[in-house]
Amino acid sequence: MMEYDAEPIRGLPGELPEGERILWQGAPDWRVFVRSALFGRWIAGYFALLALWSVANGGFGGAIASVVAGFVTYGLLAGFAALVGKTTVYTITNRRVVLRVGIALNKCINLPLPLIGSANLRPLGGEHGDIALSMTERHGLGYLMLWPHARPLRLSKPEPMMRALPDATEAATILADACAALMPTEHTAADALPDHIGGAAA
Q1: Which has the closest alpha carbon to 74: 103, 34, 30?
Q2: What pTM, to 2 d.p., does this model score?
């Protein structure tokens, strides 16, 4: 029996209450996750520079060691990213955002839509992107508890983040419409889009 086989609905801790419905579900693309969340390209470049430096100084043994270390390190990052992609499910309903995260210790993080002050979309090339959620109230989750599903460098006020989404623009639009539908305003969901999908996340 797999760890998540007992889920009544994929990615959710229980059955949906009456009136709540799933609008969108997705998971990180592990290849993009390596690049964007784990700085895979920078790490690969670092080991490549070490190898070139060793060659320039006549240390061919050091160059080989740097290349091997680079492959091993990148392989570990890719393996971790693949596990994140396999175990993570992001869900948007008409009432909340749910992050089912965790590899060894799984948990579901419920973020009610009325408490989401803004959602910041960071494009990652193509249709991929991250969506950081700025909450209007403190959610009690520390940065380490959220990582790697947290906006970088926001340590004092951690922001949950849906990472490396393959259809980020679609997810952002659905989230904006869902938030707008709960707002006591005469504006349409399309009018509310700029208020909820803001500038690039750091």
Answers
A1: 34
A2: 0.83
